[in-house]
Amino acid sequence: PSRAFHGNNRLLTSQITSYYESINQYKKELPEYFNFASDVLDEWARLEKDGRKPANPAFWWVNDEGEEVKWTFEELGSLSRKAANVLSEACGLQRGDRVVAVLPRVPEWWLLNVACMRAGIVFMPGTSQLTAKDISYRLQASKAKCFITNDTLAPAVESVLPGSQFLKSKLIVGQGSRAGWLNFRELL
């Protein structure tokens, strides 16, 4: 039973409450450890590989010029494992370390996000509109050990590096190289 209110059917408060109570009576089994990359992404890749799930893009990116990047679940899983290795080995990061990523929405943004999940690294995204003062504050408040950006935004980061005592590594996403920065694409 629902009441019509201005032509829309809405649930009564008592119905919502009883629905909520019925959900809470269900015993949820929560895993002790959960990792989206290995528990979901890798499982979907396995199902696709075994033919039990149709092959669909896990990731599909198109830029303003119409260039596309498409990754299957298996490709995204493989690339995210490689990216996690870059973060762990080349950047020296461990589970629980924090990474600030200030990138436009390029495919690497999503790849690094999944890689951080996989490695247990805390991914902290920031908008490309951050000023040097904003970047400095985020580095100090978060105690981030790695900063990831592109060549356009790197100068703002470099201007605040003397005050950053926790930063271990700087990773640049792009084609070119920059003194003192690791190049993500080359390492991948």
UniProtKB/TrEMBL annotation:
Catalytic EC class: ligase
Catalysed reactions, as listed in the record: a medium-chain fatty acid + ATP + CoA = a medium-chain fatty acyl-CoA + AMP + diphosphate
Keywords tagged on the record: ATP-binding, Fatty acid metabolism, Ligase, Lipid metabolism, Nucleotide-binding
Coiled coil ranges: none
Any one Gene Ontology BP term: acyl-CoA metabolic process
Origin: domain of life: Eukaryota
EC identifiers of the protein: 6.2.1.2
One Pfam entry name: AMP-binding
Molecular function as annotated in GO: ATP binding; fatty-acyl-CoA synthase activity; medium-chain fatty acid-CoA ligase activity
GO cellular component: mitochondrial matrix
Residue ranges occupied by any AMP-dependent synthetase/ligase domain in the UniProt entry: 52-174
Protein family (similarity comment): Belongs to the ATP-dependent AMP-binding enzyme family.
Protein name: medium-chain acyl-CoA ligase
Gene: Acsm3_2
